[in-house]
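In response to the reviewer comment on reproducibility (Comment 2.3), we provide here a single inverse folding case reported in full, input and output, so that an independent group could reproduce the run without further information from us. The structure tokens appear first.
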């Protein structure tokens, strides 16, 4: 096996492949990356048995071959190499010889025969959208998945397609996040739950470019009975689905409210963010919103001290005094790009909805009992 490629291409490819390397495992082979040279490209494959990644980089291949090597070790080496051509060779004893500039490494490789191959899935349905859009939808919902493995369905996100509407949703029993877009085409009904860990890693690989989206900046999402497959650029990511029935979110989305508030997002965010300065790490004190005609008064009382601040707002309906975990409001405001946000409230014990008029995003936050 022998090939030559740029240090930058090799480094980028390894960085993508690393995202399917487990943090802890009893199977050392899963800490490795398969490096395969053929057809003037290098294919890098990793697999932690739940998430698998295959990505390709361009190279001049002088001799086809395949080798297995510890992923973090080869990644650390390549990252620190000078920005020159990398020459990669494997001898008959699976020893890897790596040359770059004046640097030379000789490291042991392994046969790839025992490495678990990525599953071959029977694709049932496929949708397509821009990488930028998918990256944004994940960013705007991933923060409200649960980290409690005892209720595994909540550690993932719902992906649902109805005709030309694509919805991603997550919840952790105290808040709900929903993001919806219109697709360019209509599709048969799809409803699956994808692990949050997989979506976190995928969002790091997806491009964040905006503007006109050429074909190479699209992402194709294919579904089978037990897996989901993401394909974009020269990368393939495959993840197992989470089995089980997701919560009926539509049942939670009631439209009745008695108070509607419009407030500048940045001003509102600034007030709540400053209030959290008085919170100790383990302290769970609410921020109290006292909503009146032209303002929201925010109050926070903790062991460190107290603060109150007003922010201008316009209100329809009755006055209301309600309390929330400030972190939950901050999480939502961080991912909304609108200049103004709208809060819909019923009473001090009912959920607050933050949504736009098109309902392309909906966030539900449960209040905290002020007593």
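Designed residues, in position order:
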């Amino acid at each position: 096996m022998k090939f030559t490629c740029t240090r930058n291409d090799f480094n980028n490819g390894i960085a993508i492949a690393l995202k399917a390397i487990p943090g802890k495992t009893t199977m050392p082979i899963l800490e490795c990356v398969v490096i395969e040279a053929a057809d003037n490209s290098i294919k890098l494959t990793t697999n932690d048995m739940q998430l698998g990644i295959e990505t390709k980089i361009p190279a001049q291949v002088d001799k086809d071959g395949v080798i297995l090597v510890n992923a973090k070790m080869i990644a650390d080496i390549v990252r620190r190499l000078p920005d020159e051509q990398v020459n990669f060779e494997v001898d008959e004893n699976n020893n890897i010889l790596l040359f770059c500039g004046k640097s030379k490494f000789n490291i042991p490789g392994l046969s790839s025969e025992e490495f678990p191959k990525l599953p071959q899935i029977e694709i049932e349905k496929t949708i397509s959208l821009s990488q930028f859009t998918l990256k944004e939808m994940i960013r705007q919902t991933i923060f409200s998945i649960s980290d409690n493995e005892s209720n595994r369905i909540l550690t993932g996100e719902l992906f649902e397609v109805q005709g030309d509407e694509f919805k991603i949703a997550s919840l952790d029993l105290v808040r709900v996040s929903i993001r919806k877009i219109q697709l360019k085409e209509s599709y048969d009904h799809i409803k699956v739950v994808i692990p949050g860990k997989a979506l976190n890693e995928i969002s790091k690989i997806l491009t964040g470019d905006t503007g006109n989206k050429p074909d190479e900046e699209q992402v194709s999402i294919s579904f089978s009975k037990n897996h989901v497959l993401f394909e974009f650029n020269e990368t393939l990511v495959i993840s197992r689905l989470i089995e089980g029935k997701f919560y009926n979110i539509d049942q939670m989305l009631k439209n009745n409210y008695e108070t509607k508030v419009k407030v500048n997002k940045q001003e509102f965010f600034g007030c709540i963010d400053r209030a959290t300065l008085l919170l100790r790490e383990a302290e769970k004190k609410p921020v109290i919103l006292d909503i009146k005609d032209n303002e929201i008064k925010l109050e926070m009382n903790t062991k460190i001290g107290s603060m109150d601040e007003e922010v201008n707002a316009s209100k329809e309906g009755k006055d209301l005094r309600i309390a929330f975990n400030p972190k939950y409001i901050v999480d939502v405001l961080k991912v909304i790009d609108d200049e103004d946000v709208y809060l819909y409230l019923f009473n001090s014990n009912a959920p607050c909805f933050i949504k736009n008029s098109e309902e392309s995003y909906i966030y539900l936050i449960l209040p905290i009992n002020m007593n």
